[in-house]
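Before going further, it is useful to explain how the protein records used in this thesis are read. An example of such a record is reproduced below.

***
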Amino acid sequence: MFRGNLFKGLLFLGVLAASLLYWAPWWPSTNEPAECCRRPGIGLAAFAQEAPAKPLGGDLFPVRSVSDPYPVFNGVAVDPDNNLLVMTDVNRKTLLVYDRRAAATNPGDLTPPLRQMMGPETNLGFVAGVALDPDRHEILTVNNDIEDTMVGMPYTGNGNQVPSRLLAVPHQAWGVALGRSMGEMCLTVEDKNAVVFYPRDANGVLRPKRTINGPDTDLADPHGVYWDERHNEITVANHGNFKGMYKDEGAGCTPTGTADPEEGEFKPPSINVYAGDAEGNRKPMRKIQGDRTQLDFPMGLSVDEAHDEIFVANNGSSSVLIFKRTAAGDVAPIRVIAGDRTGVNHPMGIALDTKNDEIWVSNFGDHTAVAFDRRANGNAAPKRVIRTAPVGTPSAGFGNPQTAAYDSKRQEILVPN
């Protein structure tokens, strides 16, 4: 047996030596360039080629990123009877619930919320307008650009909260308001230049009960909305971007009344007032519009039904504009809150607390919300500040960015929201 194993071992060494002698001319010496291994037609030469570089892919870390780790407020709503203040956060996709009286002892400190709803079960995305239903203890907020839903949440919701209800709404719905006495709620729809109405307890997929929509309505990219039940009026803030009117013919959308697509138009921003029971192609009862109004991207608005005033979060000029409720035409505001002491920084939402004579303003330009006396005017300092980031922390300003481009001349990254 020993002689058999020895014979097999010698035979293996002989075959190995013969193989080395055969391939020696093709094997690179220490002084040969690596290209000698790439001669065609020889199996081992192919084996010795350099492996092609693998394309990047998989779970990779970015080289760097531009992001804002802090909540950035959008809509704001207040329930003074329950001392609750609720704000939507478009940056982290959350709802934040605060005590209405909340404010840090030092205005520079952060203000912890009572509760924060966030996570995949919440169905919260690009949350815009918000309203509170004090009878049902429910928070109503609208997903604007992607999810196309209105989300209902309990006052006590927290963490990865499952909604109390979900209502499918038209694409780019923004504002929401309650008509408690009529048992309805209404939402503004940017894309359709419309205000749509649903039952107050609507859930799932429903057709609107009625709609304000049409060329005579003068709705143009509507955002903030308020239902004034004392005077049975609906007040709407318009940016002025008008896409044109379309109707559904069953085989696709065609322009109304013509064979050619209707062109869009840039109209001056406006505040339109409609009857509470308005429907269809209804003209506004009143309209505030013109150079003297100072309107510039008006976002959220609120109406003081008792004192006949309209409060507007004027995003473009970082101001709060106050008009007489009955104002119409090219009229100047009766008061303006603006200036370096106010802390108003590209506001998105505004909420009126008539019980405590306060107004709350939510800022998109930084990480704050500020409270003022209802009668505030000029460069007035706020009574209280709610802050989600250290003082001076810049906001990235992202509002659901869709794409990006690189300007090689200026070496800038351009991000449209």
